[in-house]
Amino acid sequence: MHAHKLLTSAVVASFAACVLASPAPEPAITEAPSLAKRATTCTFSGSTGASKASVSQQSCSTIVLSDVAVPSGTTLDLSKLKDDTTVIFQGQTTWGYKEWSGPLLRISGNGITIKGDTGASLDGQGARWWDGEGSNGGKTKPKFFYAHDLTSSTITDLYIYNTPVQAVSINGCDGLTITDMTINNEAGDSAGGHNTDGFDIGSSNNVVITGANVYNQDDCVAVNSGTSITFSGGVCSGGHGLSIGSVGGRSDNTVDTVTFKDSKVKDSTNGIRIKARKDETGSITGVTYSGITLQNITKYGVLIEQNYDGGDLKGDPTSGIPITDLTVKDISGTSAVSSSGYNYAIVCGSGACSDWTWSNVKVSGGKTYGSCQNVPSVASC
Ligand SMILES: *[C@@H]1O[C@H](CO)[C@@H](O)[C@H](O)[C@H]1NC(C)=O
Questions:
Q1: Is 257 a domain residue?
Q2: What is the pLDDT of residues 34-70, one digit of tens each?
Q3: Domain limits at 95?
Q4: Which of 215, 270, 296 to mutate to test the pocket of ligand 1 (most atoms within 8 A of CB)?
Q5: pTM higher than 0.85 for the full model?
Q6: Atom of ligand 1 nearest to the CA of 266
Q7: Fewer CB within 10 Å, N- or C-terminus of the chain?
Q8: Could you tell me where this protein is found in the cell (predicted)?
C-alpha cells in the first residue's frame, strides 16, 4: 500500500512504532477487521466509507478518510472516538443532497488529532441548497461540521468549501486548537449563500483558532458564550465580521476573556461587532480586539450594541448584559468604511458599559452615527 506515504510524520512515527512492536511488519490495514488491534491505521473510502468509519471508530488509532462520499441525509459521524485517535482527511470528501438539518460531519472525543492532508478538501457543494434564505426559510439546509465535546484536541489544515449554511459549530469543547483552517464559501456571494457563519462558538473553554481564512456570508466568528477563546492571524472576507454574540436568551449567556487579534476583515458588512440582546441577561467581560485591519466595510466599522433584537440597533438599549473590561486597540481602518456606512456605533444601556480601554483606533470613511448612547468616555462614537 502507498497510503502511509501520504501520512504526516507524527502518524508515520506511530505507525512505525506499531510496526516495530510486531514480529512480522505488515502494511497498513485498509479496512478494520473485527479483530483489529487498537494501534492500527484504518483507511475508508467511497460511498461505504462513512458508515464503515463510524462502525470502526473504537478500533482504529488512525482513521484515514480517503475520497469518502457520504450518502445523502447521513452524518459522517465520528463522535465516539477513543481517546487519542487521529483522523485524516484525504482527497475530496463529499455529501449527497437532501433537505435536512444535518450535521454533515460530527467529531467528538478527547485527545483527538484531526488533519487535512495536502490537497484534501471537504466539499459541501452548498449551491444545491443555496436560495438566498439561509436558515430563515426556503430549503432546509444541513449544518456542516459539529466540532462538539472535543477536549485536548487539534484540527489542522482542514479546507472546507461551500457549506449549505453554518460551517463550523464549536460547542462543549475544552482545549481545542484549530490551525490554518479555510472555510471558502466565496461562491455563495453571487449564488445565494446566506447564514454561512464561519465559526459559531458556544459553551467552550480554551479554544484557539489561528491562521483561519473565512470567505462567507455571515459572521466570520461568533462567540455566543465561553471562556478563554482566541482568534488570531485570520482573514475574514465577505461576511459580517468578528462578532461576540448575539449574547442573551440561550442557556449559557456568559462571555469571558475572548481575544481577536492580528487579523483582517475585508469586503464585509461589519468589522467588529458586539451584540447584546435587548431585555435579556448575561455578561460580556474581558473581550479584546487588538491589531485588526479593516478594509471595505459597508455598514459599521465598530458596532457595539445592547439593543440587538434579531437586527442591529433596534430601539432602546437595556442593561441586563453588561459589557465590561473591553479593550479595543490598534484598529486600522482609515477610509475603510463606505460613505453610506458608519465608522462607529455604540449604544449602551445606562451604566452597562464600563472599564473600557480604547487606544489607537482609527476607523474612517463612513458617517457619524447620530444615536450613540451611554458611551464610555474613552471611546469614540
Ligand atoms: C467591497 O465589498 C463588497 C462586499 O461587501 C464587494 O461586493 C465589493 O466588490 C468590494 N469592493 C471592492 C473594491 O473590493
A1: yes
A2: 444 556 999 999 999 999 999 999 999 999 999 999 9
A3: 38-363
A4: 296
A5: yes
A6: 2
A7: N
A8: Secreted
Residue 8 lies in a domain: no
Residues of the chain with confidence (pLDDT) below 50: 1-28, 32-36
Q: How many domains does the chain have?
A: 1
Is 189 near ligand 1, meaning CB less than 6 Å away? no
How far is the C-alpha of 168 from the C-alpha of 181, rounded, in Å?
10
Q: Which cell goes with 360?
A: 489607537
Q: Which residues on adjacent β-strands are paired with residue 254? A: 283
For 173-212, give one letter per residue: b (16+ CB within 10 A) or e.
bbbbbbbbbbbbbbbbbeebbbbbbbbbbbbbbbbbbbbb
Q: Whose CA is nearest to atom 7 of ligand 1?
A: 267
Read off the pLDDT of residues 319-358 as tens digits, 9 standing for 90 and up. Answer: 999 999 999 999 999 999 999 999 999 999 999 999 999 9
Look at residue 18 in the predicted model and tell me its pLDDT. 35
User: What per-residue confidence (pLDDT) applies to 22?
Assistant: 39
What are the residue numbers of the active site? 240
Residue 294 sits in a domain whose CATH number is 2.160.20.10
For residues 242, 246, 251, 253, the Cα torsion angle rounded to the nearest 10 degrees is: 70
Distance 237 CA to ligand 1 centre (A): 9
> Which residue, among 243, 271, 270, 244, has the nearest Cα to 330 in the 3D structure?
271
CA distances from 127 to 77, 97, 164 (A): 23, 10, 7
Residue 91: HSE in the Cβ half-sphere, 13 Å Cα cutoff: 14
Asked if the structure places residue 345 within a domain, the reply is yes
pLDDT at site 26: 43
